Amino acid sequence: MPIITYREALNQALREEMARDDRVYLMGEEVGVYNGAYKVSKGLMEEFGENRVVDSPIAELGFAGVGVGSALAGLRPVIEFMTWNFALLAIDQVVNSAAKMLYMSGGQFNVPIVFRGPNGAALQLGAQHSQAFESWLAHIPGIKVVSPGTPYDAKGLLKSAIRDDNPVVFLEGEMLYNTKGEVPEEEYLIPLGKAQLKREGSDCSIITSGKMVLVAMQVADLLAKEDIHIDVLDLLTLRPMDVGAITASVRKTNRAVVLEEGWEVCGIGSQVVDYIQRDCFDDLDAPVIRVHQADVPMPYAKALEKSAKPDVAKTIAAVKQVMYR
Amino acid sequence: MATKKRTDAKSASDPALDREMLHSMLLQRRFEEKVGEAYALGKIGGFCHLYIGQEAVSTGIVGQLRHDDYVIGTYRDHGQALVRGITPRAIMAELFGRIDGCSRGKGGSMHLFDRNTNFLGGHGIVGSHVPLAAGVGFAIKYRGGDQVIVCFMGDSVVNIGAFHEALNMAALWKLPCLFVIENNRYGMGTSVERAAAVDDLSKRALGYKNMDGIIIDGMDVHAVRAASAAAIERARTESLPSLLEVRTYRFRGHSMSDAVSGTYRPKEELEEYTRLDPIFSLKAKMIADRVMTENDWDALEQEVAATVLDAWDFADQSPEPPLAALYEDVLVDTTS
User: Fold this and answer.
1) Does ipTM exceed 0.95?
2) For chain A, which domains are there?
3) pTM of the shown model
4) CA angle, A66 as apex, A63 and A72 as ends, to 5°?
5) Are B47 and B75 in contact (CB under 8 A)?
6) CB contact, 8 Å: A67 with chain B?
């Protein structure tokens, strides 16, 4: 099976879906002539032309709205945000337009749109460029939120997101674009709304998504050497969340660590823990522990930044805490 | 102005059109007066923004669109919806929060939608829908169609970022959009002079190439129709956007909860504009032109009153949405 980068996997998904359906187009800053700020759209303008790979002005609110409007009129836009930090300027279009249209029109106008781009911190980009917004976005009824951590998942989920008749928020990662993994040549789709067990183990569940899946897998590898076997559950879709997969894992291991990239307060992990306490109260052998970013804006200085981020060491410590080891 | 001349010629020669426009405006007026009554009786809740005084704008513009064109607007959307052809019954039922409403009772006054007439809503966030209009224009051009999108907005919108981002892209990409500012002189209670650092709002168009900026007398339905006809043609045949500043006036408060006049506008100003009432101006002109009699007018009033009463009765008898509808329409079901 070919091994490709996460970036290439997204590029393949875009190329295949644009070839499949001429209503699909890509719009965003630098997606065309520049080949993408992170090269996700490399070669697409050459292949599909400037009508379907559209360089926008730096105007997130405006072009996100153009995307929603075009979807109301029958197109299937993929809107690229250079990062989700900049998408805050467009949040009105995501929350008030895309997420509300079907409901407030009484079911008449759906918005088949994908808002995608990197989410969360990279390296030393400072406070305004290093934020993980998945819990903000997943809070909103009327949209789906997807957060793949591997090239295989990125491709299969992006294809499904583009084909979905609903607004889908698709969270990537600057630190993920260069990561590699196996991606088959034949076409495949990964359904939205389904979690995936990335590693089976009976001692403790780590429930996570996105970039943190890579951390969880490293933790599982390291702890296996200590004869601690981790169930790594990759949520893949944060809304709607696969509650059944969470409870199945926790009922098996009776212990859980919830690992996320974002901040603690009202984070994605808060919701996961709520599902666990509601459905697995009698199954738990220890309180659930959450691992997350320090509750501060991201600092620039290298050591401070490292200290702020959730990582392997913090996750291992959390697993040992729930295992009373 | 060239357009003005064409207007006068056309109006004098087309009594059928005059009657149609008079009917269109009067229906809006009497419908909304009834809405005011229903609101007072508690049959309509929430925010409700009446259009009374501005009817020439919707009639003049929407009345000449093609069936496959698109209309999008603000929370002050009853008038445009009526002219676009959403039935008075479906609109009244929506205002009453009933299942037969045009948005199945889920939208309310501010969110009228209708797929059959490409009515893309009433939108409640000031400025937010202007980029949506540019997006519809983008889709039209993407498909190589010759439809147009008309985007209604209030005067306060010209000061918000979304407006400028949308106009920039519409001009840059030559999108078939009419951006219609209904300048009723007040954004809620703040006058244009106190909010916009520009004297003529249409001058906002000067910042963008390919964008025409036009000032139109919004109390004169013929002027509105003629000037917008040129802009519609420009959008349809050349795929070029226009910014229309239609100078109008609302005879009621911003919404149902504030006074018609008071702290922010003097009573005398309201009275002055009331004398320019677009409906009674057209009526007077038609009687002077001898294309209508007082008896014809009375008959028109009776016809409109019957339509409005029928809408009320229909809405009143329409059931409330079943509670099961609460969880419907959040997402399109993609499980099948």
Assistant:
1) yes
2) 3-182 (3.40.50.970), 196-324 (3.40.50.920)
3) 0.96
4) 150
5) yes
6) yes
